[in-house]
């Protein structure tokens, strides 16, 4: 017994000596809080966790520290502030050795709005710009702001450099032909109505990762990146620049999502309002919270349900078929944006990484473009495993696990080092 304890304690001491230059990453989502402590140089994650099901009857937190997993029920109807207090007081502040080595805090922010094009050290002006962008990301920016304010105002002990890393930054060089809507130009000039994109942090991470796998320079990379999770989006990257993406002014446009509709004919909104007398607030709630897979099936937004029931229940089949049809349509459209060469299509996100069925049904619709899935590789690539899932005579398709926290930590570190 003593031998065992001594072994753990000597492992711990060795481990502590290696700790330096740590970044705390905070990702306050609309109904979850993700957090991690990493060293962006050696890419090691020392602590990571997630508070799930905020505002529901059974909010709980799970975290992993030194290889040990912890779980605790937090209670009912828990909000972001309560969850953050728990994360900071019960998880973070208890790790004194980690705290001593913390040099910065990276906050994920979905929308930078009109003004912000890159990661920023947080000050009052940056907070104002994030506030101004709330109408572009009404589900996300308010939660992101709570995280920033709680850390800065309530926990001076964490008064390290706070950096905001924006999903929209990845789209800053998108050409006008992609980001303009065909509505009167003044709406763009005067009110900033344009395509901004979202999920940029994940697409950016994936692009960097595939460069390493394919041994390519970032600025000659041509890929189509599919991030499929509760929110889903697809980005076309040509010569290292994102040249188009499916999310628009807000993260509502594009692919079929868990509860969001993605693309619809805008006239549906007038029809709902004028003919069905549904108020605009309710229409917004229908399109953001009651549509997508949940709306199509009337049952669930959780892909585990659809995977299990695809061949058993017609509601599941029709929802998945619409999901894959839309995704295949986008992939084929985005191939036209590649300059003569497609280096890879990549699947990532909770669904992209874990559901072979989706990859198979989508790629089978793209055989005219030469896509040939390898069924064996596809079936075995899930649960955190990355790799190629196509035959050698096909345009390459990879599954890669995303790591938004790592990219946020690297951006945070870069900015701190620059100042
Ligand atoms: P978010 O957009 O909230 O970050 P995620 O990327 O975590 O979402 O993806 C959540 C989606 O992925 C859910 O629909 C969930 O059911 C699905 N998912 C996650 N893991 C699995 C799995 N092992 N099998 C099937 N579906 C999964």
TrEMBL record:
InterPro entries: Ac/propionate_kinase, Aliphatic_acid_kin_short-chain, Aliphatic_acid_kinase_CS, ATPase_NBD
Marked site positions, Transition state stabilizer: 199, 260
Domain of life: Bacteria
Keywords associated with the record: ATP-binding, Cytoplasm, Kinase, Magnesium, Metal-binding, Nucleotide-binding, Transferase
Primary location class: cytoplasm
Residues annotated to bind ATP: 34, 227-231, 302-304, 350-354
Class of this enzyme: transferase
Residue sites binding substrate per the record: 108
Membrane-spanning intervals of the chain: none
Residues that bind Mg(2+): 27, 404
A Pfam short name: Acetate_kinase
Residues annotated as the enzyme's active site: 167 (proton donor/acceptor)
Annotated metabolic or biological route of this protein: Metabolic intermediate biosynthesis; acetyl-CoA biosynthesis; acetyl-CoA from acetate: step 1/2
Note describing how the cofactor binds: Mg(2+). Can also accept Mn(2+).
Catalyses which reaction(s): acetate + ATP = acetyl phosphate + ADP
Enzyme Commission identifier(s): 2.7.2.1
Cell compartment(s), UniProt: Cytoplasm
GO biological process, alphabetically ordered: acetate metabolic process; acetyl-CoA biosynthetic process
Cofactors named for this entry: Mg(2+); Mn(2+)
Molecular functions per Gene Ontology: acetate kinase activity; ATP binding; magnesium ion binding
Subunit structure: Homodimer.
Protein task: Catalyzes the formation of acetyl phosphate from acetate and ATP. Can also catalyze the reverse reaction.
Protein family: Belongs to the acetokinase family.
Protein name, per record: Acetate kinase
Lineage: Bacteria, Pseudomonadati, Pseudomonadota, Gammaproteobacteria, Enterobacterales
